Structure formats: C-alpha cells, structure tokens
Amino acid sequence: MIAGGWSHGGEPSASQMPTSLLLLLLPLLLLLLPRASIVAAVATEFLYPNFTVSYFNFSESGGVFLNSPAAVFSLTIADPTRQNASFYLSVLHSATGSVVWSANRNASIPSDGVVALSSHGLSIALPDSTVVWTTRALPLAVSALRLLDSGNLLLIDAANATLWQSFDHPTDTLVSGQNLPVGSPLTASVSSTNFTEGDYAFVVTPGDALMTWKGSQRYWSLSTDVRSFKESNAEVVSMATNATGLYLFSLGGEVVFEIFLPRSDFRILKLNHTGEFQVASYAAPNSSTITGNEFEAPSSNCDLPRSCPSLAICNEGINSSTCSCPTNFQAFNSGVCMPADGSRLPSSASCGDLSAISYITLESGIEYFANTFASPTTSGGNVSSCQSLCTGSCSCLGFFYRNTSLACFLLQHQLGSFFESNAVGTSTTIGYIKTLVSRSSTPDHSNDRAKKTHLIAILLPAGASFLLVLGSVSTWIIWRKRGGATQGSKGMKTRATTAAALGGGEGDDSQDDIEILIPRLPTRFTYAELEEATGHFGTKIGSGGFGVVYKGQLQDRTEVAVKRLENVGLHGRKEFCTEIAIIGNIRHVNLVRLRGFCAQGSRRLLVYEYMNRGSLDCLLFGPGPALEWQERVEIAVSAARGLAYLHGGCEHKIIHCDVKPENILLHDGGHVKISDFGLAKLLAPEQSGLFTTMRGTRGYLAPEWLTNSAVTDRADVYSFGIVLLEIVRGRKNLSRGNEEEQQQEGSWSGESSAGEEEYFPLTALEGHQEERYLELADPRLEGRVREEEVARVVKVALCCLHEEPRLRPSMPAVVGMLEGNVEVGKPRVDSLNFLRLYGQGPTDPSPPVTRGGIRLATPADGNRTASDVDSVTYTAAESIPGPSS
Ligand SMILES: *[C@@H]1O[C@H](CO)[C@@H](O)[C@H](O)[C@H]1NC(C)=O
Ligand SMILES: *[C@@H]1O[C@H](CO)[C@@H](O)[C@H](O)[C@H]1NC(C)=O
Ligand SMILES: *[C@@H]1O[C@H](CO)[C@@H](O)[C@H](O)[C@H]1NC(C)=O
Ligand SMILES: *[C@@H]1O[C@H](CO)[C@@H](O)[C@H](O)[C@H]1NC(C)=O
Ligand SMILES: *[C@@H]1O[C@H](CO)[C@@H](O)[C@H](O)[C@H]1NC(C)=O
C-alpha cells in the first residue's frame, strides 16, 4: 500500500522531494488519495496537542477532521473554490455546509499547508513552515482543542478553563447562542470563495447596530429599520439571536432593540460579500430545512452601496435590480458610468489642477445611500460654499446639497451607486459630481446650445450599447423612460425642476411590481378597482388619525371597509408593502382582517373586512340604548384577547399604539375586533434616534409617551385601562357633568366651567379608595349590575393605569383577570397619584405636546376628530410637572 505510506505522515518528506518527481507523481497521488485517507479517522469533540493536520490527511471527508459531539458542527481544512489552491481552517455547519468561522481568512494556505495544535495553541503554516496565523500567546498550556455543538471552538487548559474561543473572534457570521459585543464587528468576505476581509462591516455600537462600507459610509442601521422595536434606552453592549428574534442587549441583559423573527431553533446570521446581512433560520441545529422567511437587511437591494457600479443608478426591478447611468453620464462596457462630455472623474489620489474642476449636476430625486445616515459635513451655507469645500478637498468626489436644511454632504474617497428617491417630485437634495475637464476636448461652456446637441448625440448611442449589454426587455422599458426624461429636460445644469414630472403616477409605474418580491402579500387592488368598489368613495363610515374609511363592495359581493390612508408621509412603497405583508398575515378572531391593499403612485389604501355594528365609541357614547353589563364585559375580554395576541401570539410582536374605542369594532353575533393594528409603523417616516415615532391618540396615551422613557407593549395596556373605564362608565374619560352642554359647545374650552369637568380615571381612583364602586358604573344601567362585578373591572383598569409601566399587567394577564381565571391585582395608589395631576386640566385647550424639546407629530395632527381634541387637553406634558392640588 504505497498510498497509505504517502498520506500518513507523508507531508514532511513530500516537501523535501525534488519538484520534478513530485510533479510526476502528482496525478498518481491524486488518484490514490481517496483510498489513502481512510486511515485517518475524524475525531469527535476533542483533539490533543502535538497534532498536525493537512488537507491530504482528510481529503476523504472533504477536509473535516473534528466533529462536535452531535456532529452539528465540524472543523475542516477546505478550499471553498474546490480548485485545491486556497485552503482555510474553518468551522462548518454540517447540515448546510455553511462556513461560520475561519481562522486564516486573510492568509489562505496551499493544499499542503499545515495546521498544528501544540501546548502553545493553534497555528497555521505554509509548507515552508512560515506561520500565517496563530492563536497568539496564551496564559497557560493548552490541554485540548474542543469543538462544541454550539459551533464554538475552544482551547482549554488542564482545569477545563477556556483559554481562547472562536466566538470571541467572529468573522462574518454569528450563530444562535453567540454574542456579538460592541466594537467587535462582523466583516464580510471579499467573495463567496475568497474569505479575505472585504469592505463591508456590521458593527454593534452603544446605541445601535450599523452596517458600513469602506469603514465610514453607513448604509443601514437597526434602529431605523421598520422591522425593529425599541424597548429601552439603556446602552447596548451586545447583539444575539435566539428562537424568537434578534436582540440588542444592555449590560443588565435588558432588551434595548428587538426584531421579531419566525420561531426557529437555530439561526445563522451572515454579512455576505455583497454587503447584505442575511438571517437563515433552520428547524433544528442539525437541520438544513429553512423555516419561515429569511430576514435580509437592507430590505431593498438598491440600498446597498454597490448595488450598481460607482455612479450608476439602481432601479428596483421585478426579480432583480437594474442599473443605469444618470443623465450626462454614459455607460462603458463594464457598466461604469463616465461623464458624457468627455471630462474625467478625479481619482482621490490626484488633486489635479483646480481650474480644471467642474461639476455635473444630477437630476433631482437621485440620492446617495450614505446621506440617509451621515450627518452633514456642514450646514447653514449655500450651495456654492458647499461646492468650494469640495473643490478644496482632494478626496472629495462630489457633494449633495439639501436646500431645505442647507445641509452639505461631501462624498469622499470612493463613490458607490445611487438610487432614485421615492420623493422624486419633491426632492430638495441635488447631487453634484466633480469632474476634471481636459482642456483639449472642453466644449465651450458659454455655448449651451452646442452642448445640448452634443449631449443627445452621445447619449443615444450610449443608451443603445447599454441596452445591448443587458439585452432584456424590462431594462429596455426602464431605459426608454429614462431616455424620455433625458430628452424632455433641457440643458445640463438646470435639470432640477424637470424631474418633478417624473414624480407623478407615470414615473412610478416602473416600480409597480416590486411587491411581487415580498412573500405573503395580501391581495393588491388597483385604485380604479377600489374607486368602483366604494362607488367613488361615496359612503363614509368613519375617520380617524390614519384617514377616512369608506364602505365598499367587492366584485364577489363581499362588503368591505376601505381606509384611505393619510399622513403616511414619504414611506416608500417597499417598506409599506413589507408592513402590509406583516399585518395581512395576522389572523385572530379578535383582530380585523386585512383583505387587501392598494399602493399606486402616492396613494395608499387598505381594504378590511366590514364590521356592521361600527365602533365601540358609537355604542358607548352614542344616543342608542345602553349596553348591558354582560355585553360590556364580553367586549372588554374580546378586545383584550386581540391585543394579547398582537403582543405575543404572532410572529411579529406588534404594539398597537392607538388603542381606543374608535378602534374596537363590532359585528352581529357578538364579534369584537381590534382594528388599525400595525398602522403605527406606517406613519411618520422620520425616525428619530431615540424613538421610532410618537404615536397614539391623546387621552389614551400612557405617561411614558410624554417623558423620556421607552415605550413598550405596556403603553397599550395603559390605553386599554382607559378604555375599560370608559366601558364601565359609558362615557369618554374626560367629560362635563352636563352632556348636553358639552355637545352644544362641541369642544371643551376649560375656562369658565373648568370646575365641572370630570376626569373619570381620577374619579375611579377615588371611588376605589373609598370602595364606592357601584357609583362608578354607567348610570344608564340603573343598578343592573352587582357591585363586586364593577369592583373587579375597575381594579383591573386601575392596574393597567399604573404610571410605572412595569407595574402594569401584561395583556394576557388582563384577559385572565377579566375572565376571572386570574386573581385581580391590587391597584397601587402610589403609582396612580399622577392621575390627580392629569385631572387638573390645563389652561390651553390644545397645547403642543413636547418631548425633549421637540414638538411631537401625532397621527391625530392635521385631521384630528372633535373627540380627539377633547382629549388633548389633560394629557399635555405641562400638566405633569405641575403642583398637586
Ligand atoms: C474536564 O472535562 C472532561 C470532559 O468533560 C472531564 O472528563 C474531566 O474530568 C474534566 N477535568 C477537570 C479537571 O475538570
Ligand atoms: C429570546 O430572548 C428574549 C430576550 O432576552 C427573550 O425575551 C425571549 O423569551 C427569548 N426567547 C426564547 C424562546 O428563549
Ligand atoms: C438531529 O438531532 C436530533 C436530536 O438532537 C435527532 O433526533 C435527529 O435525528 C437529528 N437529525 C439529523 C438529520 O441528524
Ligand atoms: C421573474 O421570476 C419569475 C420566477 O422566477 C419568472 O417566471 C419571471 O419570468 C421573471 N421575470 C423577469 C422579468 O425576469
Ligand atoms: C429647493 O430645490 C428644489 C428643487 O431644485 C426647488 O423646487 C425648491 O423650490 C427649493 N427650495 C428652496 C427652499 O430653495
């Protein structure tokens, strides 16, 4: 058995052999290797010092030489290209073959490179013994190398203490159970087969998790991702994933941010070589069965720095994105965009002749990914001061100027691709790309007319070659649209206003089908279909902070409620659809079902199942017959169940943020359903660093909305507590002693008759303290309720109102208490005394609510209903610090 001798410990002699002989024997060697490797058995869990290994010893097992106890992970020497050229020592997820860690990612070894385990640690060397990687100096002697089923590779000492572990040196991947601490980034590989560190990084910071390109340009942050929830203001120390989601944790283990993921026992999180962060979830650690949807960030391809070559515009397509050059640029064969006027782009190394510097203006609506995350280089200046700044800086390759905030963003060192802003018609940010005009070919700048013809002459053939390269019909259509825009707009530097024409419905259509990419999206309707279904929006059945609701009938004769959203701001269509996919897939008997939607141009409509008894506020506060007590309790329990489901029962945790009687709908047969859930996330595109947004309706807002603390699902519990009291009393939480008077005046002025208003939560607290519960029930019940029943519901409600969110029960606990399965907690008066301040009432009926000095936009702003205005008055921030009476 020549082969056995060759393979087993044959490397040292092989390297000493004359090269000619080696070459001669190589084919034979390769032929015989599979049989040869049978000799070396794959170890389990432990390997002990004075062990050396080369790929040749384990080629039979594909380089695997150590398995974890249940073989979930393995340690391998392998060449990802399978060309037998560049080998890495890696930890492999056995079921999927994914590399989750590699030691020598920046220094691959040839097939006869050697991995050695000694009492000093682990090292990797070239055949000539040059060490390319080691675990560095360790404090104690190594007694074993150990591979765990978690994927962690350890060096342990004689006392089994860990001397070194691969989890402390993450590469581009994080697995379930592994912590990614602040300041220890994941760095993407150059390519899927070359593990060398590339330009993309994923880093956890004390306040967020970010993705960066080339060390400085940010292209994603977790806090601004629509899928994340902020849970606390504590400082972040690490990130980790478990069966239910992805979390940023504080030092005390508190969740600061969370992203809910489909339940899964094992995940692999990877920053891949294109800069995308992907979460793959598996049914079990030893399984390759993918569970649920994968999570990807950024959620749009076009948000990646190099979705296209430098300077090209990324266009979101049906199955993939396409690239095209901005007006005044032309594509060269590799898709690189160069100035069409023959000028050169500067390299940041050469400063060049200042007098040769010129700028090409980009169309309005073209945005650069990093501007979303960067703070402006300067602000307050005008466009020419921004330009001088760029001209004066050799590394500046161009700049963006935003005329609304006078912000100047310099683009330094390297340019990525552009994308088209959704706000194309209203964009106030214009980009300018620095070019160097070579004197010989400079067209006369004063002769604009000559330049124009020159431009068109160049652009058309350039577009044609671009078309040939990509050769697809869909690209052609997009190009046609761009070409049309190009010819329609005149001149080179006066492009800004003309692009506004693109902002209408027409320009939007090329993106109409991106929703197809989003899985499980509910039925999509066209605007015309909904116009017909609602009889041109003829029957208005409600209105609220999110927009007006109309009754409609679909072609199959099912009745629907169509909500025309307002205040959805500049939210992109893709983000909108992502949210819709989430909302649309939440099914619960106590939640109003979303049947479909429409996102056409700037229009956003939602189609819901129709609830024929309307909303709870009409039944409670309206002129009809009073609801009987039992019916009230049933409504409360059903609504609580719906909220409990939102908070914990579904894939994505949802904080409603706007719980109020208007959002509790009823249908014949005792059906009670919560509506408008999930919509809070569709509002307010501006996401502040501290809070995603300020949401909700005043009167039902938990006190933490007004102070500087985190908002959690307990904010919904507070709002529900207010609703419970309204159900008990049959009145809005703030009302006059005299109903007729209130209706005549329409809104509460809070002046002359301020003494007469009743803030019922305070009355309820006082009633509770004096144990006079029966007086709190709706007088219209005329005694058709027992005192202990009222006492129970009032106590539950008061517990929900505790000022300290932690002291409020969870929604499932509220359900239990209302049903009588869980003992009702004792309201804590010390955490309810703030109601006395609220009860005082303010002097100004509609003061701006401020938080941290910033005026807060609430969904109610702009189209508040009269009842919302009523309830503005006593939750205003200024009533909190006021003296107690
Ligand atoms: C170290 O761990 C191994 C296996 O888990 C065990 O057999 C051994 O007794 C341990 N040694 C010490 C010193 O704890
Ligand atoms: C995942 O971690 C979060 C935060 O620590 C925790 O609330 C949740 O219960 C965990 N999920 C599981 C299934 O352990
Ligand atoms: C995965 O592990 C479980 C127990 O941990 C075992 O029952 C199952 O057979 C394993 N599946 C595979 C494919 O190895
Ligand atoms: C998009 O993908 C689907 C399925 O993969 C395919 O049928 C369709 O032709 C693709 N469309 C385009 C425009 O490439
Ligand atoms: C900002 O620029 C846009 C586009 O050029 C223009 O329509 C708008 O009037 C400008 N606004 C201000 C405040 O100058």
TrEMBL record:
<dbReference type="InterPro" id="IPR008271">
    <property type="entry name" value="Ser/Thr_kinase_AS"/>
</dbReference>
<dbReference type="InterPro" id="IPR017441">
    <property type="entry name" value="Protein_kinase_ATP_BS"/>
</dbReference>
<keyword id="KW-0245">EGF-like domain</keyword>
<dbReference type="GO" id="GO:0016020">
    <property type="term" value="C:membrane"/>
</dbReference>
<keyword id="KW-0067">ATP-binding</keyword>
<dbReference type="InterPro" id="IPR011009">
    <property type="entry name" value="Kinase-like_dom_sf"/>
</dbReference>
<feature type="region of interest" description="Disordered">
    <location>
        <begin position="734"/>
        <end position="754"/>
    </location>
</feature>
<feature type="domain" description="Bulb-type lectin">
    <location>
        <begin position="51"/>
        <end position="168"/>
    </location>
</feature>
<feature type="region of interest" description="Disordered">
    <location>
        <begin position="856"/>
        <end position="885"/>
    </location>
</feature>
<dbReference type="InterPro" id="IPR024171">
    <property type="entry name" value="SRK-like_kinase"/>
</dbReference>
<dbReference type="Pfam" id="PF00069">
    <property type="entry name" value="Pkinase"/>
</dbReference>
<protein>
    <recommendedName>
        <fullName>Receptor-like serine/threonine-protein kinase</fullName>
        <ecNumber>2.7.11.1</ecNumber>
    </recommendedName>
</protein>
<dbReference type="Pfam" id="PF01453">
    <property type="entry name" value="B_lectin"/>
</dbReference>
<feature type="domain" description="Apple">
    <location>
        <begin position="351"/>
        <end position="437"/>
    </location>
</feature>
<dbReference type="GO" id="GO:0030246">
    <property type="term" value="F:carbohydrate binding"/>
</dbReference>
<dbReference type="GO" id="GO:0004674">
    <property type="term" value="F:protein serine/threonine kinase activity"/>
</dbReference>
<keyword id="KW-0812">Transmembrane</keyword>
<comment type="similarity">
    <text>Belongs to the protein kinase superfamily. Ser/Thr protein kinase family.</text>
</comment>
<feature type="binding site">
    <location>
        <position position="563"/>
    </location>
    <ligand>
        <name>ATP</name>
    </ligand>
</feature>
<feature type="domain" description="Protein kinase">
    <location>
        <begin position="535"/>
        <end position="829"/>
    </location>
</feature>
<keyword id="KW-0325">Glycoprotein</keyword>
<dbReference type="InterPro" id="IPR003609">
    <property type="entry name" value="Pan_app"/>
</dbReference>
<keyword id="KW-0547">Nucleotide-binding</keyword>
<dbReference type="GO" id="GO:0005524">
    <property type="term" value="F:ATP binding"/>
</dbReference>
<dbReference type="InterPro" id="IPR001480">
    <property type="entry name" value="Bulb-type_lectin_dom"/>
</dbReference>
<feature type="compositionally biased region" description="Polar residues">
    <location>
        <begin position="864"/>
        <end position="885"/>
    </location>
</feature>
<keyword id="KW-0472">Membrane</keyword>
<keyword id="KW-0675">Receptor</keyword>
<dbReference type="InterPro" id="IPR051343">
    <property type="entry name" value="G-type_lectin_kinases/EP1-like"/>
</dbReference>
<keyword id="KW-1133">Transmembrane helix</keyword>
<feature type="compositionally biased region" description="Low complexity">
    <location>
        <begin position="744"/>
        <end position="753"/>
    </location>
</feature>
<keyword id="KW-1015">Disulfide bond</keyword>
<keyword id="KW-0723">Serine/threonine-protein kinase</keyword>
<keyword id="KW-0418">Kinase</keyword>
<keyword id="KW-0430">Lectin</keyword>
<dbReference type="InterPro" id="IPR036426">
    <property type="entry name" value="Bulb-type_lectin_dom_sf"/>
</dbReference>
<dbReference type="InterPro" id="IPR000719">
    <property type="entry name" value="Prot_kinase_dom"/>
</dbReference>
<keyword id="KW-0732">Signal</keyword>
<feature type="transmembrane region" description="Helical">
    <location>
        <begin position="455"/>
        <end position="479"/>
    </location>
</feature>
<dbReference type="GO" id="GO:0051707">
    <property type="term" value="P:response to other organism"/>
</dbReference>
<keyword id="KW-0808">Transferase</keyword>
